[in-house]
Every structure is written in structure tokens, then in C-alpha cells.
Write a structure and sequence with these properties.
Blueprint: H1 3-14, H2 38-52, H3 58-63, H4 67-77
Length: 80
């Protein structure tokens, strides 16, 4: 499973199954397109940190507003 697929699964989990992986494109905005409120976004950040063994600072979390933004951050942070 690649990073995008893992990330899509995390978003589906946070949305409590309301969203399908089909709508989770890199361009999808967390709040506007996916309807994730600030609590859901915070939960997503925690899951991303745990899943990929990284730390997301407050500034980074505030800057990341799309699925693609999270993906780029994770791929730029995770050491292969």
C-alpha cells in the first residue's frame, strides 16, 4: 500500500465512513470539499503522525489544507 492509499484510509476513518476513497484526490480541500471540521482535521493529523511515525508541528498543520498537501508533507518527512 502506498502513502496516498494509507492517507485515504485515514481520511475515511476520520470521516467515520462518510467519505469514500474515490473523492479523496490530491486537490480535495479538507474543510471546503470534504467537510472535515477542525476537530476532524486534528484527529487526522494525530493519525498521520502515528501511522507515519512523524511529528507535525502546529504551523505545518495550519498550512496543510488539502490531501495533496498532507501527502507532500509526509513524503518530504518520512525517511525511506
Amino acid at each position: 500500500m502506498n502513502t496516498m492509499e494509507k492517507l485515504q484510509q485515514l481520511v475515511v476513518k476520520v470521516s467515520k465512513g462518510r467519505l469514500s476513497e474515490a473523492v479523496l484526490t490530491p486537490e480535495a480541500r479538507l474543510n471546503e470539499d470534504l467537510g472535515l471540521d477542525s476537530l476532524a482535521q486534528s484527529e487526522l493529523i494525530v493519525l498521520v503522525e502515528d501511522t507515519f511515525a512523524i511529528t507535525v508541528g502546529l504551523e505545518e498543520a495550519a498550512r496543510v489544507t488539502t490531501i495533496g498537501g498532507i501527502l507532500a508533507f509526509v513524503e518530504g518527512t518520512v525517511v525511506s
